[in-house]
Amino acid sequence: MRFIITGGGTGGHIYPALSIAEGLKKEFDNPEILYIGTRSGLEKEVVPRAGYPIEFIQASGLSRKISFDNLKTLLRTLYGVGQSIVIIKRFKPDLVIGTGGFVAGPVMLAAILLGKSTLIHEQNAYPGLTNRLISKYVDHIAISFEESKKYFKGKKITHTGNPIRKEILTRTRNEGYKNLQLDRNKKTLLVFGGSGGAKSLNQAMLDFYKFIQKNPDFQLIHVTGKRDYKEHLKEIKERGIELSPRIRIEEYLYQIEDAYAVADLIIGRAGAITLAEITARGIPAILIPFPYATENHQEHNARTLEKKGAARVILDHQLTGDKLAEMVNEIFSTQGLIKRMKEASLKLGRPDAEERIINIIKEILNK
Ligand SMILES: CC(=O)N[C@H]1[C@@H](OP(=O)(O)OP(=O)(O)OC[C@H]2O[C@@H](n3ccc(=O)[nH]c3=O)[C@H](O)[C@@H]2O)O[C@H](CO)[C@@H](O)[C@@H]1O
C-alpha cells in the first residue's frame, strides 16, 4: 500500500500525522509512505528524524485581512497544487491523508482533483481553516472533539480523538531518568509552550527559577522553543540569574517522551496534542492557554481538564513567576492532590485514537 501524508507548520499538525504513519506501518506490510511539507515548517526537521522521506511544496497561510500578501498566498497555493499533482501522479498513493496546517490545503486539493481517496484528521474542537475549506470534498473526516462535527456538515465523520506517538505511551520512568540523566529522588517539573514555545511563559520562568533554587527537592526542564532560546539565555545572563544544575534549559526536545516519563507536573500551553499526550500519561498540569488561538480554543481545551480536576488554569494576562510558584507549592503540599490530579488526567486520556483512525483507513481502502 502507498500513502501520502501531509500536515505541518507546527507540531500540533505534524505529530498526529507521524502517529498515523506509525499505525500504517503496524497494520500494513511494508507500506510506502511519503510526507509532503514545506521548507519553512517544523516538519522539515521532525519528519526526516522520524525516518520518513519528505518532499517540499510551496504553501503559506492566509492572513485574516484582505491584502497583497493574500494574493501572493493564492498564487503560491496554486503553484503548490501543481507541485502536488506532479508528486501524486508519480507516487501513485492509494490514500492521501491530511492533518491540517496550510501545507495540507494544496496537497489535499490536488488529491481531490486527481480522484484519489482522501482522509483528513482534525485535532481541535474548532477546526482549522484548511480542514474546513477542503472538508466538503474529502472521503472521510476524523475528529477529536464531538463539538467539531457541526463544522463539517453531511460528511462521513468519525470521532477518533487525537493520536499519540507510541513512545510517549510506552517510555518508562527508569528509561526517562537514564536518558535525561536526572535525579530520581527529586520532583520533576516539565515546562514547555507547545511546539513553538511561549514568550509569556518564558518571561515568567525568569522569575520562577528562584523557586527551584530555594527548593532543593525540585528539578526543572524548561523548553523555551527555538524562536526564543538565544534571547532567553541572553536575558538570564543580563539579569545575573545564577542557574543551578537542577534547572535545565532546552531549545526543543526531539525525545519529549523521556521528559513526559519523569514529569510529576507539566506547566504549558493547551494545544490539543499536548493535552492528548498529558492525559494519555496521566500527568497533572498547570495550563496557560494561548490567548490568540482561533475562537480561543486553547482555553476551551484547558477548561475541559480543569473541570475534571486534572489541571489548573492560569490565563496568560495573569501569568507571573510568583503566581506559578504559589500554585506549584500548593499542588505539591496539599495532601493527596497530585494523586487525584493524576487519576483525573488519566481518565480523560484516549490512547486508542490511532487504532480508530487505522480502522477508518482500512474501511476506505476496502471500498
Ligand atoms: C498557537 C497555536 O495556535 N497552537 C496550535 C498548535 O499548537 P502546537 O503546534 O503547539 O501543538 P500542540 O500543543 O497540540 O502539540 C505540540 C506537539 O509538539 C511536541 N513537542 C513540543 C515541544 C518539544 O520540545 N518537543 C515536542 O515534541 C509535543 O509533544 C506535541 O506533540 O496546534 C494545535 C493542534 O492543532 C492547536 O491545538 C494549538 O492551539
Describe the structure.
Helices cover 46% and strands 15% of the residues. The protein has 367 residues and is α/β, with parallel strands linked by helices. It folds into two domains: 2-164 and 351-365, Glycogen Phosphorylase B (Rossmann fold, 3-Layer(aba) Sandwich), CATH 3.40.50.2000; 167-348, Rossmann fold (3-Layer(aba) Sandwich). The strands form two sheets. A seven-stranded parallel sheet has the order 3-2-1-4-5-6-7, sandwiched between helices. β2, α2 (43-49) and β3 form a beta-alpha-beta unit. The model has no long low-confidence stretch (mean pLDDT 95). Uridine-diphosphate-N-acetylglucosamine binds at residues 10-13, 15, 123-124, 192, 194-196, 223, 252-253, 256, 269, 271-274, 277, 290, 293, 297-298.
Q: What hetero molecules are in the model?
A: uridine-diphosphate-N-acetylglucosamine
Name the average pLDDT.
95
Return the string of H and E elements: EHEHEHEHEHEEHHEHEHEHEHEHEHHH
CATH homologous superfamily of the largest domain, by name?
A: Glycogen Phosphorylase B
The number of distinct helices, counting runs of at least 4 residues, comes to 15
Question: What's the number of extended β-strand segments?
Answer: 13
- For this structure, what is the CATH class of the largest domain? Alpha Beta
Radius of gyration, whole Å: 21 Å
Largest sheet: 7 strands, parallel
- Structural category: alpha/beta
The side-by-side strand order for the widest beta sheet comes to 3-2-1-4-5-6-7
The CATH architecture of the largest domain: 3-Layer(aba) Sandwich
For the termini, the CA-CA separation is 14 Å
CATH topology name of the largest domain, in short, is Rossmann fold
Strand content: 5-15%
Question: Low-confidence runs (pLDDT<50, min 5 residues)?
Answer: none
Helical proportion? 40-55%
Domain Glycosyltransferase family 28 N-terminal: 3-142
Enzyme class: transferase
InterPro entries: GlcNAc_MurG (IPR006009), Glyco_trans_28_C (IPR007235), GlycoTrans_28_N (IPR004276)
Family: Belongs to the glycosyltransferase 28 family. MurG subfamily.
